[in-house]
Every structure is written in C-alpha cells, then in structure tokens.
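for the recovery benchmark. tokens below, seq after
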C-alpha cells in the first residue's frame, strides 16, 4: 500500500446549523471511522487506490575526460517504490549536443522494479554541460532531471627541443641532455615509454607511467655515448595515452675519434731562484687527427711566499718564467682541439734553488704593511754600512770582508706594497756573525699584527724557518743569528 499522507475534503450537511467544510488526512489502511470533533463523527471510506513513487539514480552524471571522437555511455536507473505502475515519458536532452539518448522510448516500471535509460557522450574539445529531463506518473515527482557534465579530452604530448642536439662528444665519453615532455593538450596525459632507434642515444627508462598534468612538463635525461667517429642521428619515439601519436624527436651528435694528448716539459728543470728563468713547453702535444690545438697553461703549485705567475698568452710554450723563492713550481698544461675535445692534464715540476752559501728569504701575511729585511754583520748598527737593507744593498751592498764581491751582501728582491718576498744573499760569507732583523717600516696602510716568515739556507739546505708576529709601526724584530767560520755556517734562533 502507498504510505504517503493524502488530504480529503467534503461538506457535512444537516449535522450543524450551517454548512461547514472539513478536511481530514487519510492513509490507506486507516480504519473507516474518523473522529472530527467531540459531537460528530463521520464514516469515511479509506479504500483508496495505490500510487507510484519515482526514485532515480544518479542525479548527476560526470563523464570526466573523454577522448574526442569516442563515445561513452552511462545508465540512469529508474525504480518504482510505490504501489502502482510508474510511467516515465517525454525523455529529452537539453544543453550540449554532445549528449544524447541511446533510446528515448517511454518506460513503464512495475511496482518494486527498476528500468533504465542510457545517456551517451561523444565529446568535442571543450567542457560541456547538459541535462536529461523526463515526466513521470508520480504525482509528487511529475518532472525530473539528471544533470550531465563532461570534457572533450584532447590528450597530447610533444618532445622539446626537437631536434635534441648533443654536439661533439669524444669516444669513450658520454654527454647527457634533457628532453622535455610537454603536455600540449587539455587533459592529463600519461607517458609509458620513450624509445630510441639508435643504441648511441639512450633515454632514461620510465619504470612506471608518468602522468603529466595540463600545462606541465616532465624532464627526461637522454645520454649519448659515441659508437663511432663522425655524425650520428636517431629518433626518439614517445608512447602515451594521447589520441594521436607524438611526433618523433630527432637526435643528433658527432662522435670525435680521440682526444688530443697534452705533452709538457720545462726547460731547464732546475734554475737559481731570482737569477735564472725557465720556459714551460707544450709544443710536443698532439691530436690524433691532426686538428689544431689550443694550449692552456696554469701554475697549480708554488712555494709558500712566492707571488710568481704563469706567463700569459696562447702559445704552446710560455716563458720566461723566473721563480722568486726557493722550492718547487708545478705547471699544468691542458690542450683542446677545434671540436672541443679536451686532453687529460699534463703536470711538470720546476725546481728553484739558491746559488749562494748564505741565502735569506722573508715574506709576510698582510699586504699594505711594508716589512724590510735587514742582515747586520758582526753586531753592527742598524741602518749603517754594517747593515744590508733597502737603502744600500739593492743590486749590490756594502763592502764586507776581504777584497772582491764574493763576501758582500746583495738585496736581490725588495717589496713595498705586497707581501714579499724579499731576499738577501752572500755568495761566500766572511767569517763572523750575521743577524737577521725585520723592520716594520712606518707609514703603511696596514697597522695590525702581521705574521712574518723568515727562511735561512746554508749551502742550499734549509736550516731555519720561523714565523713571528710583528706589530707596531717602526718596530724591530730579531729572528736569527748566523755564525760563519771556516766556510761553514750555523743558525741560532733568537
């Protein structure tokens, strides 16, 4: 039986002094006697006919993204929960013409039964909406509507750049470039693989499908490893769920047969610091294909205190190079050919040594602080003829010892604005004592503490190497005393 509440109205005459209209709610199955008030009762026939009740599902159909040119379907279920047969008629699609009915025939739904009608979507490249409306014999739902939604999906992907170029790559090396997979459609696109038709070009494997959102892209590394010398090309094929296959991406590169070889040397291999020079040589370098070479020289190692630099230019050989302190200098040569192939580095060492029996070097930490090296003979006075310093010793100093210059001091390097080095040497010192002092010359731009390092070589052997902190303009600091007797010297730290 139908369970909904119904209203009935009638006129009761002769029971009251005037005609009165009464209303009463009646449910099927109610007893025949309904009490209207305390004085009157009326017999009512409750044997009313049953009614249909419409229930349909779903109220909204969202087809989502559907590839253009394809047709998808969805069913609308119509159920009768009432007590009488349900008639459904006048099925009509409104809105976008991309929606349609598979069959617009009327439906008759028995009590407790379910029937269906089918809606179809054949999209174009757009977001669309629509509706299916219909009538029914349910007096409480004489019209009904199912909302329709859908998007015509133009799934598309392309590779960029196209072509993808790797340039010149030496055999035995590899070059990696990135291929950008761009979603150029209006729906997410899923890429399952990118394949190459040439083993020299290898895209990174896509181990799981990659879904690229609308307006986004995915970076895929591609590695080129030359299989042979000369030009190479290939195609990358993109597999995805796009309606139309993506255009193949062209790849190109050039395999270079071999790299050039850097051959380096220095001539001579040993020089006297300050007084002699050497030439860094790279003119024996080769290219297997005879291609022109470019030479890149650098000084990668030099002794502490040195400010020497590699001679500039583009020539294969660089010189003259004059070391400024004792020790080893390492030059490095790298050559490249006109195709961009680069050699392994070639390193070569130049050794600089002292040439005097007594050799004193000095340098300091901070520039802008003029430190002066003094070598004072036999307890003589500072800034006197017994003192070899900038004022009297550059290029040849005072006359010490016996006749001749072998026992005279020379200040060969004097540095004012930088950090040194400075050098005083005596070829064959006369017997006696020599004191090494450092003077912080006044008027410098740097006035803070400064670490000063002094090294003393006797007959080519480093016997003294010490750092002291010098502070205060015009201050004096004594470092060492050298005792020379019978052609041999010893060093006493101070």
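predicted aa per position
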């Amino acid at each position: 039986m139908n369970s909904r509440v119904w209203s009935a109205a009638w006129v009761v005459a002769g029971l009251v002094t005037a005609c009165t209209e009464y209303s009463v709610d009646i449910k099927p199955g109610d007893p025949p006697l309904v009490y209207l008030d305390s004085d009157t009762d009326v017999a009512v026939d409750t044997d009313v006919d049953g009614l249909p009740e419409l229930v349909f599902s779903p109220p909204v159909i969202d087809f989502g993204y559907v590839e253009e040119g394809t047709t998808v379907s969805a069913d609308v279920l119509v159920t009768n929960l009432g007590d009488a047969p349900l008639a459904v008629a006048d099925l009509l699609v409104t809105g976008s013409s991309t929606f349609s009915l598979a069959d617009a025939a009327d439906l008759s739904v028995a009590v407790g039964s379910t029937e269906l009608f089918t809606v179809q979507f054949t999209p174009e490249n757009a977001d669309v909406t629509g509706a299916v409306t219909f009538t029914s014999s349910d007096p409480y739902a004489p019209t009904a509507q199912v909302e329709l939604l859908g998007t015509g999906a133009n799934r598309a992907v392309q590779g960029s750049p196209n072509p993808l170029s790797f340039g010149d790559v030496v055999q035995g090396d590899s070059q990696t470039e990135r291929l950008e997979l761009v979603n150029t459609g209006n729906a997410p696109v899923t890429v399952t693989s990118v394949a190459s038709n040439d083993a020299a070009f290898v895209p990174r494997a896509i181990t799981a499908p990659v879904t690229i959102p609308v307006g986004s892209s995915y970076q895929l590394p591609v590695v080129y490893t030359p299989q042979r010398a000369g030009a190479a090309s290939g195609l990358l094929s993109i597999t995805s769920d796009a309606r139309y296959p993506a255009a193949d991406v062209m790849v190109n590169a050039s395999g270079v047969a071999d790299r050039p070889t850097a051959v380096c040397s220095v001539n001579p291999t040993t020089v006297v610091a300050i007084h002699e020079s050497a030439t860094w040589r790279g003119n024996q370098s080769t290219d297997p294909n005879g291609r022109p070479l470019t030479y890149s020289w650098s000084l990668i190692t030099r002794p502490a205190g040195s400010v020497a630099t590699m001679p500039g230019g583009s020539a294969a050989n660089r010189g003259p190079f004059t070391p400024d302190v004792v020790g080893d200098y390492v030059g490095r040569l790298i050559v490249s050919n006109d195709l961009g192939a680069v050699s392994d580095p070639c390193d070569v060492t130049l050794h600089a040594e002292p040439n005097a029996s007594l050799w004193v070097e000095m340098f300091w930490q901070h520039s802008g602080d003029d430190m002066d090296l003094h070598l004072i003979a036999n307890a003589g006075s500072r800034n006197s003829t017994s003192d070899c310093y900038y004022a009297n010793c550059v290029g040849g100093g005072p006359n010490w010892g016996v006749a001749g210059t072998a026992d005279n001091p020379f200040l060969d390097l004097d540095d004012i604005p930088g950090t040194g080095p400075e050098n005083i040497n005596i070829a064959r010192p006369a017997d006696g004592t020599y004191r090494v002092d450092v003077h912080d010359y006044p008027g410098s731009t740097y006035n803070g503490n400064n670490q000063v390092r002094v090294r003393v070589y006797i007959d080519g052997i480093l016997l003294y190497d010490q750092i002291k902190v010098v502070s205060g303009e015009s201050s004096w600091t004594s470092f060492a005393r050298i005792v020379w007797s019978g052609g041999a010297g010893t060093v006493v730290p101070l």
